[in-house]
Every structure is written in structure tokens, then in C-alpha cells.
Design goal:
Blueprint: E1 10-13, H1 21-26, E2 31-36, H2 42-56, E3 60-65, H3 72-84, E4 89-94, H4 96-111, H5 115-118, E5 135-139, E6 151-156, E7 161-166, E8 174-177, H6 187-206, H7 212-234, H8 239-259, H9 263-274, H10 279-300, H11 304-318, H12 325-342, H13 358-367, H14 380-390
Bound molecules: fe (ii) ion.
Fe (ii) ion binds at residues 144, 196, 200, 265, 279, 283.
């Protein structure tokens, strides 16, 4: 069995760690592009804490706001801001959108040209040769694990797709997990990002490119997320549960970067590119349909390796370590459905998806990079049935 595992140079997990950002950043640069999402209310205080820490370290700071999921145009504007202020490093504070924008900006600033030069599928797909600007990623949501990955997902509105800019150079230099930054995330966002996190851990565990390290880290992440997710959904101020979710999300990012994902994420890209559906919701709606299709295929083909993995997952998800294999396998479906029900995840139709869109969505999903790693091949008919279940 051949495998390779890559990770980021440093991870710091510390409640209140944002107050250390000045000291941490001054080791990497002098002129900071501070990329955040929109921060209001209590989160503005967190932003003030961060700016004070950077000021105390005598760093120049230009604040740049990423609104919504990043587009090519956003990255162009951010690149222009970084160039005109001669920024030599980036700090991204926010969800996957802010961190992905920061990664792409850092890559383009260092390598020259425009975002499309480096985009796969719709762009020239040129490799990023030079290291991106050093990046400190500070996640405030526990979802995509972008702080641990080497890609940035960008929306190309004109083509109705989301595609990645990829390269080891894009991986953050440091991920800072400060759970105090996550306590104000509202329940709907907590639910959607949390189910993205869970989906990523499950898909990388069952991926056909899974390996010993990703297996161990994915299971550890799921073990943390299963009890913590309902707690943070109910009471966002539970800072220790928030920390467990941040660790689970980072583990998910590290696992997916090394093992790939599966059909849920194969669908999530085209769905998010064509409909106004948040990534976490797209994953949450497809999770049970895809898990059901994969399990049925594993049973039909006597795929003992995958069935054993489903049994392990079912025991962790149900928190019943002694369950017999067949019961545990079904628990994977039942427990994931219970999360979707408890969090009141709307179906795809809520976002304007209809059966008319199925053929195009299936075609796009089969071409996605994530689909390559689904543990079993699913036919176009089976994929269409997954969409119908999620509608
Ligand atoms: Fe995801």
C-alpha cells in the first residue's frame, strides 16, 4: 500500500489565542492583509482584539472584507488591494470563504497574473510555482477545514461552477484554533458547517484513497464531532464543544487533502455553482442519499472492506461501541438522518432545484474530482436517485 501524507507546518489551539496574532505574524512579515468576513456585534470585538494585537507588534494592517463565497472578481480585487498596499503576508479570520479567498489572493500575488491563470477546469490551470504569501488561517466556523487544505474553492459565476485553485504553496503556514471566536456563530450556520465537517470526515474515511493516517484522524474527528455538534447547535456559547468542533473540522481538512472525498462533494460543487445553496446545506441534503447508495452497492457486491468501515462508523455515530455489524451499518444512515432532521435542513427544492436540472447536475458531478474517490462506482441512474431523494 503506497501513500503520502502532507500537513501544514504549525497548528496552535488556544482559547484566546487571537491575542497572540501580533507576535505570531511578526515572524512571517511586516505588512498584513487582514481578510475577514463581515464581522458585526460581538464579533467586532474579536476583530478589535486582533487589530490591537497586530498594532502592538508594529505591523502595518490593511483590512479587506470577503462577503459570501469567493468569486474570481473577489480574488482579483483582493489581489489588487494586497499589491497596492505591498502586503507581504495574510491573516484570514472567518469561515471557509474568507480563508479560501486569502489563499487564492496569496497565491496570485506571489505568482503574478490573474486568478484564471491558475484555475482548474475553467482557467489555464497553470501551476503555482512560487510560495504564496505566508498565511495564518484563523477559522471561526467548524466546517470545510480550509485552514488545513491546499486548495481554494472559487465561484465562477459566468460558468455556473465552483472550481479549485490548487497547490502545496497555498496551504496556510499556521492554523490558529481559538474557540472563543466561534461562540457567536448562529445555529443555522453551525448546523450547515457542522454537517459539512461530518460529511468530509465520513467521505475521507470511506474514500478509495484512504490511508492509515487519514483513517485514524477521520475517526478521531467523528468521535469529537458526534457529541459536540448537538451541543453547539443548542448553545453556541459552549466554548469547549466549539473547540472540539474546530479540531474535528481541521482534521477533516487534513483528511480530505490526503484521501479525497466522494459523491456528496461531487454533487456539492455543481449544486453550489448553479443554485444559491450554501455548501454545508448541499452536503447535508446529499449525505444520507449517497451513504444509502454506497451501502447498498457494498452489500450487493460483498465489499467486505467497505462494509467493515460502515460498521465502525455506525458504532461511533450511534455511540454504541458493541453493535453487531449489520445493525451498525444501518446506524450510519439513521444517525446522519437524525442530524439532518434535528437541524431542520431544507431539501434541495427549497433552493429552486428541480428534476429538470438532474441530467446536468449528474454529468457535472461525474466529472468532479471528488467523484473519483467515492468508495464504489455509482451509475448515472443511481446518482439521479440520490438527487431525487434529496429534492
Ligand atoms: Fe465540504
Amino acid at each position: 500500500m503506497n501513500w503520502k501524507f502532507t500537513t501544514l507546518p504549525q497548528i496552535l489551539c488556544q482559547q484566546g489565542g487571537r491575542h497572540q496574532l501580533g507576535r505570531l505574524a511578526s515572524a512571517l512579515g511586516q505588512r498584513v492583509l487582514l481578510v475577514t468576513g463581515r464581522m458585526s456585534g460581538e464579533r467586532s470585538q474579536h476583530l478589535t482584539d486582533i487589530q490591537s494585537s497586530l498594532k502592538a507588534a508594529n505591523l502595518f494592517v490593511h483590512h479587506w472584507v470577503q462577503t459570501g463565497e469567493p468569486t474570481i472578481e473577489d480574488v482579483e480585487a483582493g489581489t489588487e488591494a494586497a499589491r497596492s498596499h505591498r502586503c507581504d503576508m495574510i491573516i484570514a479570520v472567518g469561515g471557509g470563504s474568507a480563508i479560501d479567498a486569502a489563499k487564492a489572493i496569496g497565491g496570485v500575488v506571489a505568482n503574478g497574473g490573474a486568478p484564471l491563470d491558475y484555475l482548474e477546469v475553467v482557467g489555464a490551470g497553470k501551476p503555482l510555482i512560487k510560495p504564496a504569501l505566508p498565511l495564518i488561517a484563523v477559522p471561526t466556523t467548524a466546517g470545510a477545514g480550509s485552514e488545513g487544505t491546499r486548495n481554494a474553492v472559487l465561484c465562477v459565476k459566468s460558468r455556473g461552477v465552483k472550481v479549485s485553485m490548487r497547490g502545496e504553496q497555498l496551504r496556510p503556514h499556521l492554523a490558529l484554533l481559538d474557540a472563543e471566536l466561534a461562540v457567536t456563530v448562529p445555529p443555522e450556520t453551525t448546523a450547515a458547517t457542522g454537517l459539512d465537517c461530518l460529511t468530509q470526515l465520513i467521505e475521507s474515511y470511506t474514500s478509495n484513497k484512504a490511508q492509515p493516517l487519514t483513517d485514524a484522524w477521520a475517526l478521531d474527528g467523528i468521535q469529537r464531532a458526534v457529541p459536540a455538534l448537538p451541543v453547539v447547535y443548542r448553545d453556541g456559547s459552549e466554548v469547549n464543544a466549539r473547540e472540539q468542533m474546530l479540531i474535528a473540522a481541521l482534521l477533516g481538512g487534513l483528511c480530505l487533502g490526503n484521501a479525497g472525498l466522494g459523491a456528496v462533494h461531487g454533487f456539492a460543487g455543481p449544486l453550489g455553482g448553479s443554485f444559491p445553496i450554501p455548501h454545508g446545506i448541499a452536503c447535508a441534503t446529499l449525505l444520507v442519499p449517497v451513504l444509502s447508495a454506497n451501502l447498498a452497492k457494498a452489500q450487493k457486491t460483498n465489499n467486505s472492506e467497505l462494509l467493515e468501515k460502515y460498521a465502525v462508523l455506525g458504532r461511533i455515530l450511534s455511540q454504541q461501541p458493541d453493535l453487531a455489524a449489520a445493525i451498525a451499518q444501518n446506524q450510519v444512515i439513521e444517525q446522519c438522518q437524525a442530524f439532518v432532521d434535528a437541524f431542520e435542513i431544507p431539501p434541495l427544492s427549497h433552493y429552486g432545484v428541480s428534476e429538470d436540472a438532474f441530467p446536468e447536475l449528474v454529468t457535472a458531478a461525474t466529472r468532479s474530482s471528488s467523484m473519483k474517490y467515492n468508495p464504489v462506482p455509482l451509475s448515472n441512474h443511481e446518482l439521479t436517485q440520490c438527487l431525487a431523494m434529496a429534492l
